[in-house]
Design a protein that fits this description.
MetI-like fold; two-stranded antiparallel sheet; 79% helix
Length: 386
Amino acid sequence: MSATSKALRQSFALRATSASFLAIWCLLAAFPIFWIAVMSFKSPVDAFAANPIDVIMGPSTRANGNGLSVLDIVIGGTLLVVAVRMAFTRLPDLVRMICPPQMIAFGWIVAGLLYALAFVMVFVAALPLILGVLNANAGPLGTPVIGMTLDHYIAVWGENEFYRNFLNSLLVTGGVVTISLTVGTLAGYGLARSGSDLAFWLLILALIFRALPHSVLVAGYLPVFINSAEILKPIFGDGAPTLYGQPWAVIAVLVSINQPFTIWMLRSFFQNIPAELDEAARVDGCSHFQAFRRVIMPVMWPGVITTGLFSFLLGYNDFLVTSLLLDAQNQTMVPAIAGYFNRETTTTDQVEAVAAAVSITAPLFLLVMVFQRQIVSGLTAGAVKG
C-alpha cells in the first residue's frame, strides 16, 4: 500500500463517528417522513394507534378489505426498484443521447414530466388492476397481510380539490424559477466578466436584503398590496387592479427575495469558466450574445440546474409570503395543508392532511432523482471558486 493511500485511509474511530452521525440524521430527519407516509395509507384507527406495530401492519385497514398481499409486495417492490434505478441510470443517458447540448435543459424537463406521468399510470392505474386479477387467483399469496388504502389521497385530490392548490403552486414556482434564472444568468455572467467593484458591492447589499426575515419584507408589502387599487387609481382610473391575491404579484415578491442569491450563485459558476472561451468565440465571429448562448451556456447547465433547484424550493415551500398575500382561491399547497391541520377536524381529516403533506414531497424526490448528476456537478463547480 502506497504512502498516499495510507494517509487518506480513515481510522476506525472516524468511520464509526461518521456512521453514527448518519444514523442520527436518518432517525431525526428521514424517519418522520417515512412515518407520515405510512400513516397516510392507513385508516384513522390505525394511523393514530398507540402501538407502532398496528400503525405499520394496519389491522383495522386490513379488516376493511384494504391491504397489500405478498404478491403485491413482491411485484410492486420489484417494479419500484426498477423504476428508481432507471431514473438514476437509464434516463440521464437517454436525455443526453437524444437532446443536443443547447436543448439539454428542455430535454430534462420533458423527460421528467413524461417519466412522472408514466410512473403514475403504471403504479396508480395499471398495476392495481393487474394485481387485483392475480390476487383473486393466488390463494394465500393474494390475501392482504399489511393494511393499506388510497382513500385519503382520493379524498384530498378529488373531494377537497387539492389539485387546484397544486396548480397554483406550479404557477408560482414556475414563474419564480423562470424569471430568477433568466435575470440571474444574464446578470451573473455580466458580473463575472465585468470585474466591477461597484457592481460587486451592490450585489452584497442585495444579499443583505435577501438575508432579512420574510416577515419583515411581507410587513412592508402587505399594506401596499391591500391598498394597491387606491394607490394605482391616479394612473389606471377606476379600473386600477388590486395586487392582493394575484399570483403574478406574489411571483414578483418571491423573485425580488430570491434574485440576489441566484445572481450570486450563477456569478460563482461563471467565474469557473475560463474567459478564453469567450475570446475564442469572439475571434470566430460570434457576438457577445452568440458566444454566451453557443459556448458558455452548454458548459453552464449543471450550475443553472442547481440554482434553478434552489429557486424551485423557495417558491414551492414558501408559506409566509403566499399565505399572507394570496387569497383562498389562489392559495398554494403549503398554506392549504397548514389550514387542514389548524381547523377543527376529525381524525379522518387529520389523516387526509397527512396524505396531502406526503403528496407534495413526490415532486421533490422526482427532481432529485432526475437531476442528481447535474446537482452534484453544479454544487462541486460552485464550491471551487467564488
